[in-house]
């Protein structure tokens, strides 16, 4: 085996080495010394070391004088910035020369700085460093890796010992990254983030390099944090897809609602009403049971119940409707649950199935549920729990599978307080609920409903009556206590009673003369009342007047009329109105 000789070792040592005789004359110089020393062409054998490196030369003489080695001396001269170690060379106890080894101070500082910042023996630091889920690199300002954590080890598939000491460019060349950010961090002394693509693994990596500055503001090292965001990007894409899908479903649902509303001749132009009917459609498609529909009388609770039935999978099965308020209390229970032969005097010989049984596989709609007597409430609750009914006087349970929809225009919570309605039944029914707003809160529906009812009445009575759109607009000032049913009745009455083609006069008579009186009064007072604006102002005043009757602060009024508070204040002033 060939071994290096002394000369080769001397030549390749990374430290600069100069040999001198006792007079300080250079006897040996290696290549590293020539690289480190500025005016290296003068550093030749035979020259006095004092001429080329005066400060180092002085030290050499001191060492000769004291015959003692000097270690790690910092030499600062005009052109000398070195860390120097000198020893004497003795022969037969006589000093015959010196050997001086040195490194460039900058090089030394960079190593020292790194050691300053991080004590690699510090277990605590390494533990914290290693538990990070993100990859962490400590890189010297020269681009050489000082330390990596376990996450980097794992992502590179290399051991720490194989990585530490390597230049970061090595990993770019090997395809782990497509660039490095260390140089930029060192150059700018600022945090730098880059989205990298690992050429080998095709992973998307977000790298952030943060400079660590020393006391002099120089970059001592760079901490690089790397996060594999490929999964994150994939999740984001999946999420986008789900959102798109959801939008598609939303659109499809909206179309389906429109279609079903048309099919069932249900008007729901008003935004709130449309969303209520959308929920009703959802209930229908999910075959949901135990639904409570609330709303004032005539708002369309029965229609909503039928809508749920006909949009669901039970549409071909019976829809049984019972008005709990219309049947005498004494027979209501028997009607609902049926009775067996001989259950009571007057009972049919054969017994009779109840409405729940008749609604098997279909829907049972209990209107005015607040009127259900206590015994019926208890039995209904039991049915909702086990879907079994026992006829009055009977001994066997019968399994019945029907959907229960209940409706009321009463305040059930108040009835509970008054001990007229069971709280457990209320909570059972209230989990799925729909509240239909009164017609006066759905002006958009008024036009459609009027046209629909007029069309139907014309069909029924073989007429071709019409209504002036201004009259429909005017109807918006009316509060419709009987809601849609009242509107339907008014239109029917208009068609039957009207002597002219237009049903306007009958309609006006029905909804009261308030508005017409206003118009008449205004036109008497001001003969210029001709424009649409003038008439609209009369309507506006009337609408606000009606609203004042219900709301007594400008804030509430503004909210109800969906205008700003300053606007309502201005309008109140304009019409000489005030809140109560
Ligand atoms: N949105 C609507 N579109 C078309 N017709 C409607 C609408 N709402 C209600 N109607 C009609 O108005 C009338 C009254 O509706 P419905 O009987 O459903 O009201 P209700 O709230 O159940 O009344 P009550 O409280 O008196 O039981 C019915 O003829 C119904 O068809």
Automatic annotation (TrEMBL):
Q: Which UniProt keywords apply?
A: Aromatic hydrocarbons catabolism, ATP-binding, Coiled coil, DNA-binding, Nucleotide-binding, Transcription, Transcription regulation
Asked if the keyword Transcription belongs to this entry, the reply reads yes
Q: Which ranges of the sequence are coiled-coil? A: 232-259
The residues covered by the PAS domain are 121-202
Domain of life, per lineage: Bacteria
NCBIfam families to which the protein is assigned, alphabetical: HTH_TypR, sensory_box
Q: Which GO terms of the molecular function aspect are on file?
A: ATP binding; DNA binding
Q: Where in this chain does the record put each Sigma-54 factor interaction domain?
A: 266-496
Does the keyword section mention Iron? Answer: no
Identify this protein by name: HTH-type transcriptional regulatory protein TyrR
Q: Tell me a GO biological process for this protein.
A: regulation of DNA-templated transcription
- Which Pfam families does its entry note? AAA_lid_14, HTH_50, PAS_9, Sigma54_activat
């Amino acid at each position: 085996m060939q071994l290096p000789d002394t000369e080769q070792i001397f030549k390749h040592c990374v430290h600069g080495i100069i040999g001198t005789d006792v007079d300080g004359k250079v006897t040996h110089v290696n290549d590293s010394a020539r690289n480190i020393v500025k005016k290296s062409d003068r550093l030749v054998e035979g020259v006095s070391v004092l001429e080329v490196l005066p400060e180092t030369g002085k030290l050499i003489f001191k060492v000769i004088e004291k015959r003692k080695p000097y270690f790690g001396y910092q030499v600062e001269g005009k052109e000398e910035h070195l860390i120097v170690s000198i020893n004497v060379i003795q022969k037969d106890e006589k000093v015959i020369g010196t050997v001086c080894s040195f490194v460039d101070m900058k090089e030394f500082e960079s190593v020292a700085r790194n050691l300053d910042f991080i004590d690699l023996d510090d277990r605590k630091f390494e533990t914290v460093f290693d538990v990070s889920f993100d990859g962490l690199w400590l890189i010297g300002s020269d681009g050489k890796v000082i330390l990596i954590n376990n996450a980097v080890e794992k992502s590179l598939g290399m051991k720490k010992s194989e990585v530490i000491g390597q230049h970061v460019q090595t990993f770019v060349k090997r395809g782990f990254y497509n660039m490095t950010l260390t140089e930029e961090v060192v150059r700018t002394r600022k945090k730098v983030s880059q989205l990298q693509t690992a050429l080998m693994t095709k992973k998307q990596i977000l790298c952030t390099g943060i400079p660590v500055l020393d006391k002099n503001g120089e970059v001592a090292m760079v901490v690089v944090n790397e996060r594999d965001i490929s999964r994150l990007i994939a999740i984001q894409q999946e999420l986008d897809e789900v959102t798109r899908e959801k939008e598609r479903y939303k659109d499809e649902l909206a179309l389906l609602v429109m279609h079903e509303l048309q099919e069932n001749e249900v008007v729901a132009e008003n935004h709130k009403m449309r969303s209520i009917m959308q929920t009703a459609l959802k209930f229908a498609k999910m075959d949901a049971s135990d639904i409570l529909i609330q709303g004032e009388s005539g708002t369309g609770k029965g229609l909503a119940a039928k809508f749920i039935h006909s949009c669901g999978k039970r549409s071909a099965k019976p829809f049984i409707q019972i008005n709990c308020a219309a049947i005498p209390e004494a027979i209501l229970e028997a009607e609902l649950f049926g009775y067996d032969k001989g259950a009571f005097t007057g009972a049919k010989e054969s017994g009779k199935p109840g409405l729940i049984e008749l609604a098997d596989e279909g829907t049972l709609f209990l209107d005015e549920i607040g009127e259900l007597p206590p015994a019926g409430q208890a039995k209904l609750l039991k049915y909702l729990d086990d879907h079994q009914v026992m006829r009055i006087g009977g001994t066997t349970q019968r399994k019945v599978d029907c959907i229960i929809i209940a409706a009321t225009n009463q305040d059930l919570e108040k009835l509970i307080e008054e001990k007229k309605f069971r709280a457990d039944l209320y909570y059972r029914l209230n989990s799925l609920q729909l509240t239909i707003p009164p017609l006066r809160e759905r002006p958009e529906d008024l036009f459609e409903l009027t046209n629909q009812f007029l069309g139907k009445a014309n069909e029924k009575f073989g007429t071709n009556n019409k209504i002036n759109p201004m009259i429909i607009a005017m109807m918006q000032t009316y509060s419709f206590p009987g809601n849609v049913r009242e509107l339907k009745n008014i239109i029917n009455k208009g068609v039957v009673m009207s002597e002219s083609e237009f049903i306007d006069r009958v309609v006006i008579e029905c909804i009261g003369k308030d508005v017409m009186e206003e118009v008449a009064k205004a036109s008497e007072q001001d003969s210029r009342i001709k424009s649409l604006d003038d008439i609209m102002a009369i309507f506006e005043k009337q609408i606000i007047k009606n609203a004042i009757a219900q709301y007594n602060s400008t804030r509430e009024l503004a909210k109800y009329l969906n205008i700003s508070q300053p606007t309502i204040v201005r309008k109140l002033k304009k019409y000489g109105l005030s809140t109560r």
